[in-house]
Structure formats: structure tokens, C-alpha cells
Amino acid sequence: MASQPIPRLFMWGLSGSKLIQVNKKKFHKNCWRNLTAYPHLFLLIFIKSFTMVSVSTICGPFSITCYLCVRIMANRFDRLLWQAYVSTNKIFADKVMEVYNPEDYVWVHDYHLMVLPTFLRKRFNRIKLGFFLHSPFPSSEIYRTLLVRDEILKALLNADLIGFHTFDYARHFLTCCSRMLGLNYESKRGHIGLEYFGRTVYIKILPVGIHMGRVESALNHPSSSIKVKEIQEQFKGKRLVIGVDDMDMFKGVSLKLLAVEHLLLQNSELRGKLVLVQIVNPARSSGKDVQEAKMETYSITKRINDTFGFPGYEPVVLIDRHVPFCEKTAYYALAECCIVNPVRDGMNLIPYKYIVCRQGTPKMDEALGVVPGSRHTSTLVVSEFTGCSPSLSGAIRVNPWDIEAVANAVIAAIDMPDLEKQLRHEKHYCYVSSHDVAYWARSFIQDLERACKDHYSKRCWDIGFGLNFRILSLSPSFRKLSNDHIISAYKRTSKRAIFLDYDGTMVPHTSIAKNPTPEVISVLNNLCADPMNSVFIVSGRGKESLSDWFVQCENLGIAAEHGYFLRWSGMSDWETSSLAVDFDWKNIAEPVMKSYTEATDGSYIEAKEIALVWHHQDADPDFGSCQAKELLDHLENVLANDPVAVKRGQNIVEVKPQGVTKGFVTEKVLSKMIASGKPPGFVLCIGDDRSDEDMFESISNTPYTPSLPSAPAIFACTVGQKPSKARYYLDDTVDVLALLQCLADASSSNSSSTETRVSFDNDVRKEL
């Protein structure tokens, strides 16, 4: 569908309208008949009046949090209203499913349908789904107050591409995902991607444009020319400034009027000359906030006109009625300056329309009496809190709360030299005309196609119930490690390297006793007894604990604290990493961890020689996870200038020096084996958490010697089915021990009485 033209036919219905209710069957019949002719047709969906009221009410708090930085709705959260919101989204999902084909692309818009992606993804795992939020996304401090915050985030992440108008809105969303869901994101070749259960959810920053054809058509309409003549006659000799806003508490209409009042008070020469035409679009609701804003607007307007007006001159002309678009274009075309100063807003397109109208058309130029070929001008005073502000680099940006600054900006705009006005206008018009709504739609659809290109190359599993539903997406090459497959490769080689994580791999995380069981000791000793094997435990635990636990395994190599300490066997000394480390950061990190420990029952701090680890496996699962996300964010902020890495693992948050990773251990061991002339033909690495991903990547990227008759058999294996850099998985620690026992048995059956047992320690360390 993305290759088809942008839709030119739209159908809509007003829920609760008697006319529509009477002709519902006829409307549906027409929709289906036209669907064949117009593939992009918007189908009519009937929603009960009560449900629509509930949806509007539940959307209110999100809308408020989107627009306000400090005010939070104090009303108690109503689950019935939330259920109505969810039910409405489900109705939309049912309607989409009626017309959906597997090759279609579905594009969902704005916060009224934020949980729709979950319902659609649940029906079709590989649906090609985009979502665009046309409102500001609140900061994490504000958003976290919503009771359904996680449900909304998880629902949005069921889309393949999520669009925002500005980077600020996208940044707030990414921060919420990081702090509340613990997700990581990165920029890849200009595209921001969130890794979510094996899927990459892309983030697009793309401000919407205007429909150029509609504006130019209005400019060429005869009624526009007639209205221009009327306005010119009405405001003859006056300097016209235009403002067009909705009547609500966010648009800053009263602040704009106060700025004009201050301007006239401080600049007497403009009295009788400057006129602000403020068009106020009819209020969409009759709430208390709207009524207060309306009363304040009328009160300030009356005060200004009473103070500075005189017969034949009104400084402020307030138009509080429905104004046809052709009439608005006439005002735009005549105004020297346009003021748009909301205190918080989405992608306000009024400045774009003003710029296009000031550029005009031949017919409009004729009506204005402009000489053909003349250069056009326009000036803009724009609030820094509106979505279009970053796109209009030539506008004068203001803080709408600073009345004096807004007044000065208006003076600067109207007194600007003509050449400067022309240059700014041409720069703006070039951008607006090339980034219209058609460009916006094409660009989003192109990125949606790119985001969905690998849908059919991965295997998908459903996880979770209700609004916690998500898709686990894994590579088709990711499969369970077969004993027969690995044993065959194991027997064919004469030198092997085996790297094993400890917690979650050799012993389960749920185990109270963390020391190794007799079964673990036995299987490790059996593997180490084979002179062809070099076996290492690679753990984040301290060297003292690991030394005590594996004292019976003399030929076992141990890497402690993610490889900062390395011991080649039980008979060798500990080696320390050559990385230069400064531990002053501990004085900053430890007090922060202590404050979270005091606030989180069941958590504790583990102080290692080079790292600090905050554990929360014994805390309440939900609260512990929430606190871990907060602690991660807190530590990243306070340690931003220190050479440390703050990582989150399985029930832990760890701070350690940069460059200390498990991948460093595998790289070091394999490099020394290769340098000794005994390169491994078999490499096995098993781990279960994020820190082990470095090992998986390292064993795959290590440059093995070309002297081997064939490429080494590499087995990177994670514990549990989850997104990983490993190609294989085992279900749990029981499977891990069973596999290792099979390898040990293969060593026993493969050994002969003529083989001389020499440990890796004696074999390699002599040459180091």
C-alpha cells in the first residue's frame, strides 16, 4: 500500500449523530462499495456516546500531562474509564481486522489509540505497524505518575515504527522506556532503535507539514480576494499583526494580549497604528478551564481597548466565531507579523500557513496590489514550547511567560529591515513548501517499510497476557543446542576452550546456596581431566568466593570480577588486568546505592575490589525492578564524568571500570592459546545474562590461525530462549550440566592409555 498515492478521499462520522444512527446500514454499505475503488479509505466506526465520553475523560489526564510541566491531575484514577478506553481501541482493532491483508501497512495516530498496537500485534505477529504521536510526550517525571504507564509503553512498543514531531518528544519517550522498562536504545546510521525482546522498534522524528494545495486553492478563491479588499479598507494605514489560536488554557492567548498591552504602554508611537487581530477558534469543550481562559481573554481585550483605543481605532480585534479558511488566508496575507506563543503545544501549523499565504499566488498578489515578481516578506514570533519552533530557524523565539520579551520580539519583527524580512521569509517558505504533508506521509511510510523488512526472516513467540502482551522475535538460526551435534564437533578436535558463566548457568538464580553442588564440581573435574580441554569459569563474583568454592578443581581456570582478575589454574597466582583504574568513583556511587538499599527491603550492596553491585533478588519483584531502573538512571547521571560503566543484569545493578568485560577474558585466553601454537578447534561459551553477551561476541570475532585445517567449531550458547548474540540456547541449568556431563563422558570414551595428561597451565604458561 505504501507505493500507492496518498489518499484523496476521506470519510468520517460523528458518534451519536441521529442522522448517522438512522443511516448506519447505508453508511456501511457505501464504505464497503468504495473500499475497492479507494484502498486508503478511512472506514466509519460507530462508538456509543457513553463510551466516547469515557474515552475523552480518560484521555484528559494524559493530555494534561503532555502539555503541562508542573500541574498533575489530582483526580483519582478511574478503572472503568480506562476499561472504556481499552474497549474503544479494541473496536478499532476489530474494524482493522475486517479489511486487513498481510501485505498492508497499518498507521495508527495519536494518544486516543495508544493501546491499539497491542491488539493488532496479538492478532498478527508480523503485522507492519506504525504509530505517530501528534502530541508532546511528557517527561519521565510527569509520565511516571500515570497508573497505566507500563501498559501504554508496552503497547506502543508493539509498533515497528513510532513517530514524533520533535526530538524533545522522542527523548522523553526514550527516557521513559529506559527508566521504567530498562530498555536500551542506540542510533544506527541516523536511525534510533529500541531493542525490545529481539525486535528493533525504530523511532522517527518528523514534523508534519501542511497541505500546500489546500492553502493555495484558498488563496485563489474569489472570496479570499473580496475579503482582502474589505480588510485593507478596514485597517487602512494600520500595521496588522495576526494571531490564530484555539480557546484553551495552553495557547497563551492572554499572555499574548498582555504582551501587546506592555508594547503599547512602552511605545506610544505605535498607538493608533498597531492592531492585533486575534482569531479565536470556538472552544471544543465547555469545561471550567476553557471558561476561565475565555473570561480572561475578554477582560484583557476590553482593558486594552479602553486604555489605548479611541474612535476609529481598536488595538485588539477579537474574533470569537467560526472563521472560514478563505477569510483566515486573507488575514494571513495582509499581516506583517504572526504571533504564536502557546505555553505548551504540539505541532502548531499556523506559522506554516501564514508563510504560504504571505508568499501568495498571482491572483492573491493582484488582489493585494503587489507588483508581479516582487519579493515577499514575513516575520514570525514563535514560542519555544511549540513543536514547529525547531523547524523555523528564522523565527524570533520567545518564552511566552516573559511578557516583556514577547513585546520586544514583536517590535523587532515589525521594525526589521525589509531585506532581512525577505531572507527569513524565503528560507521559511523553501522549508515549508518542500516539507508538506505529502512529504511527511511518504517519509514515514518509507521508514515503516524499512523497519518491517525482516518480519518474515525471524521466528516469533507470543509472550504475556492482556496489555502485557509482546512478541519474542528470534533469529531463525537460533536453536536449541543438540547434544549429538556438539559431541560430534567435540570429538573431532584436539584442543578445546570452554568458558562457563557461574550464576544462572552452573547454579540457578533461585538457589539460596550459591556455592557449587557436588555435581558441578564433579563434572568440571571430569572436563579438566582431559588434557585437550582448557576450562574457565568466568564470573562477576569476587576472587575469594570463587577460590574457596572451586578449591577442589585444580586444573580449572577462573576469571573473577568480569575478568579483572584471572587465574589459569588452582596452582597459579592471580593476575590483574593491565587497565589503569581510579576508584574515587566509589565515594560517589556507594552513598547512592545505600539510599536505595534503605528504601528497598531485601536489597543489599556487594562491595568487590573493583566494583559495587546492588542486589535486589530478595526484594519484592515489581518494586525491586522499578528501583533498579531508577538506580541505574541515578548512577548514570552522577557518574557521567567518571570512567565507569553502569550496567543492569539479572536482579543487579553494577558499577565497574570501563573496559572490564567478560569478552576481554575470552579474547585474552584464546589469543594466548593461538600464540602458544595450540589454537583451539572447538570453543564453547555458555552464559545467561547481558554480561555474557560480550563473551559470545568475542569468541565469534577472534581471529583464529589459518593453520587450522578447518575453521574452529564455535558454540555460543545462552540459557533460556531470549534475544542474544548466541546462536544456541539451553533451557536451564539442568540442561547445562547434562550437556557438560555428555562432553565429559565423550572425553572418557575418547581417551587412550597412551595419552599423557598435561594441564593447560603447564602447557601454555611456560611459553608466556
TrEMBL record:
Q: Could you tell me one molecular function GO term of this UniProt entry?
A: glycosyltransferase activity
Q: Would the keyword Transferase be found if you checked this record's keyword annotation?
A: yes
InterPro entries reported for this sequence: Glyco_trans_20, HAD-like_sf, HAD-SF_hydro_IIB, HAD_sf, Trehalose_PPase
A single Gene Ontology biological process assigned to it is:
trehalose biosynthetic process
Q: Could you list this entry's UniProt keywords, alphabetically sorted.
A: Glycosyltransferase, Transferase
Which Gene Ontology terms of cellular component type are present? cytosol
Q: Where is this region: Disordered?
A: 748-768
User: Could you say which protein family the record assigns here?
Assistant: In the C-terminal section; belongs to the trehalose phosphatase family. In the N-terminal section; belongs to the glycosyltransferase 20 family.
> What is this protein called in UniProt?
TREHALOSE-6-PHOSPHATE SYNTHASE
Q: Which organism is it from?
A: Salix viminalis (Common osier)
From which lineage does this chain's organism come? Eukaryota, Viridiplantae, Streptophyta, Embryophyta, Tracheophyta
